[in-house]
Amino acid sequence: MSYRLSLLDKSPIPEGENAAVALQRTVALAQTAERLGYTRFWVAEHHGFPGLASSAPEVLIAYLAARTRSIRIGSGGVLLPHYSPYKVAEIFNVLASLAPGRVDLGIGRAPGGLPASTRALRVLHASGPAHDFSAQLSELDTFLSVHTAEEGAARALPQPPVSPERFLLGGSPDSARLAGERGWNFVFAGQHNGDEKTIEASFEAYAGAGGKGPVLLAVTALAAPSPDEARSLTDALKIVRVTLDDGHSVNLGSEEQAAEYARQAGAVAYHTEIRKPQIVSGTAEQVRRELERLQARFGVREFIIDTPPAAAEKRLASVMLLAGEAPALAA
């Protein structure tokens, strides 16, 4: 295998279960990923979705780091526009002090929730001017820097033995260019936008802006014992793209979520479009062949695997099947 595999988990809550069970399943999945030789285990940030327990990745990262020993643990990612860069730096410096050399700080810019959740998160600065994401990222970089701050300047303490590894998550050449300019690693969010021309343009923009970090690609993937089973688990999945009357659009998981998004946004009218999600699925061999093709085309050194909604045992089986050739599995 000429690339590394890592996992992204959203702590899904199946019908009939609760968040406590979902979060313990995330812990078990992280421990399994460590045993199988996965490189990283990241947790996402979503707000206001009843089917997801992943609203506070920084809390979950601390717990996961305490329940694992070697796998890197991180965020995929913290949604910076909601927060003070200084506070984010403090949190991740504490995490990196608790688990030196094992903490990843992944940053995103999406709202990560319905409009009411976004308003609640930004209540203290809702009436002020919109934050410039590039400026926020630069400020975060300054607080994470190991150099001594100027006299009188704020310092994000404690200073960990090893700083968190930094990743910018995005799905466009603009995000890639920003990562390259800031010296951050870049992860293309292929689970949201799998257009290969956009992936290629983004990686070229990253390199053109001076990006020297590893190139990572996030994909939605599911492996099953047979192609028929893989199809049965993924054929019914859909994305509902809702477009409001002001032109703003967002991808959601159901018509009900689309209607609620429009209501919370105060839209007079909206329309939806049903799309098929881009999922790499099949047997483990078929999924690996597709990953090898993507690796050869884009020079990807690591894939972040996002598993689609499925029964817990099917998601776990997929994680185990994909790691079938990992050295740690044989051990």
What would your notes on this structure say?
By secondary structure, the chain is of the alpha/beta class. The two termini are 16 Å apart. The C terminus is likely disordered.
Set down the secondary structure blueprint:
Elements: E1 4-9, H1 19-36, E2 40-43, H2 57-67, E3 72-75, E4 78-79, H3 85-98, E5 103-108, H4 115-121, H5 133-144, E6 165-170, H6 173-182, E7 185-189, H7 196-208, E8 215-223, H8 227-234, E9 239-244, E10 249-252, H9 255-265, E11 270-275, E12 279-282, H10 284-298, E13 302-306, H11 312-322, H12 327-330
Helix pairs in contact: 1-2, 1-11, 2-3, 3-5, 6-7
Pfam family, one: Bac_luciferase
Family: To bacterial alkanal monooxygenase alpha and beta chains.
InterPro entries: Bact_Lucif_Oxidored (IPR050766), CmoO-like (IPR019949), Luciferase-like_dom (IPR011251), Luciferase-like_sf (IPR036661)
CATH superfamily of the largest domain: Luciferase-like domain
Mean pLDDT: 92
How many extended strands?
13
Tell me about the biggest sheet?
Answer: 8 strands, parallel, barrel
Summarize the structure in short.
This protein has 331 residues and is an alpha/beta fold.
